Amino acid sequence: MASSSSSIAATNPLVGIQVSEKLTKQNYALWSAQVLTALRGARLEGFISGKTTPPPAEIEKKEGDKKEGEKTIKIANPAVDEWFATDQQVLGFLFSSLSREILSQVAGATTAAQAWQAISDMFASKSRAGLINMRLALTSTQKGTMSVTEYVAKMRAIADELAAAGKPIDQDDLIAYIINGLDANFDPVVEALVARVEPITVQEMYSHLLNFENKIRLRQAFLTASTNAANRNNVTRGGRGGMPRGRGGRGGGGRGGNGGRGNNGGGRGDNRPTCQVCNKRGHVASDCWHRFDETYVPDEKIGGAATHAYGIDTNWYVDTGATDHITSQLDKLTTKEKYQGTDQIHTASGEGQGHEENNS
């Protein structure tokens, strides 16, 4: 028995080959790709395509010698049995790869070519519709909320299905389909890719998109942190007054310009946030129109005006070694003296200002 089994395995190259996707009504493209690969590897594709036809049933054979005269007779062709055995091996391989519902419709086939033709006819119309749907999916799929990895993987999967169905997509076309589904946030990297002279592969484009996506995430995280810090600072200014209660009794209710009605006072302060990108008030950085515009430069006058805002730091620090301090709001100094020098301070607006007083 062992020698018999080994001889069968030696003469049947399909023994041991398993098709993971049994044919159903939904997976013809994947199934055919696996079956064709196995048959081509075993050099048996001709049995399903019809190219390997059965040999003639009889062949001629000469008998006798030349002296007495040779006779030509016809005998059964031994190659017929060999061809039939191989054909039945291919047919059995096809049957083993079918689901029960498909097998019941092609079980009457007696050759591998008949079975393959019946299966092809069964799925011909469905395959055409499937190809159209897959092409439409390539043109209409949008990245949306998917990550770059998920989006590119989905587009590649559709292209692979088309290739398995015998309709491969050109790499440049696939790149165009992928770019078409990206949102406006990716316009900078898309423009750079389109402007390239040398060709680019799908894998290279994927790397560029992934790097740009990571850059967007880092920038959004930074803007969120900056916005939260700005909101906390504005709440502190508006709710508690601009100056802490100092040693000289200059509390929130005094008359020295630091009380409830002062510019940095209590309940009537301006609670509107200041954008960290354009320095304008009334919105936060995450809502700014210029948050992804790397070429945008804020208005210098607005930037200069923003430097006059008096920030409050309530923390205490060890002596920094500074001998002089400068401020644009002299009423915040407990003690001040006139500056006698000629130096000037240039603000962000570009204007030079001579400071007449500083603290002592």
Automatic annotation (TrEMBL):
<feature type="region of interest" description="Disordered">
    <location>
        <begin position="337"/>
        <end position="360"/>
    </location>
</feature>
<dbReference type="Pfam" id="PF14244">
    <property type="entry name" value="Retrotran_gag_3"/>
</dbReference>
<feature type="compositionally biased region" description="Basic and acidic residues">
    <location>
        <begin position="58"/>
        <end position="69"/>
    </location>
</feature>
<dbReference type="Pfam" id="PF14223">
    <property type="entry name" value="Retrotran_gag_2"/>
</dbReference>
<dbReference type="GO" id="GO:0008270">
    <property type="term" value="F:zinc ion binding"/>
</dbReference>
<keyword id="KW-0863">Zinc-finger</keyword>
<feature type="region of interest" description="Disordered">
    <location>
        <begin position="231"/>
        <end position="272"/>
    </location>
</feature>
<protein>
    <submittedName>
        <fullName>Os01g0123000 protein</fullName>
    </submittedName>
</protein>
<feature type="compositionally biased region" description="Gly residues">
    <location>
        <begin position="238"/>
        <end position="268"/>
    </location>
</feature>
<feature type="region of interest" description="Disordered">
    <location>
        <begin position="47"/>
        <end position="69"/>
    </location>
</feature>
<dbReference type="InterPro" id="IPR001878">
    <property type="entry name" value="Znf_CCHC"/>
</dbReference>
<dbReference type="GO" id="GO:0003676">
    <property type="term" value="F:nucleic acid binding"/>
</dbReference>
<dbReference type="InterPro" id="IPR029472">
    <property type="entry name" value="Copia-like_N"/>
</dbReference>
<feature type="domain" description="CCHC-type">
    <location>
        <begin position="275"/>
        <end position="288"/>
    </location>
</feature>
<keyword id="KW-0862">Zinc</keyword>
<keyword id="KW-0479">Metal-binding</keyword>
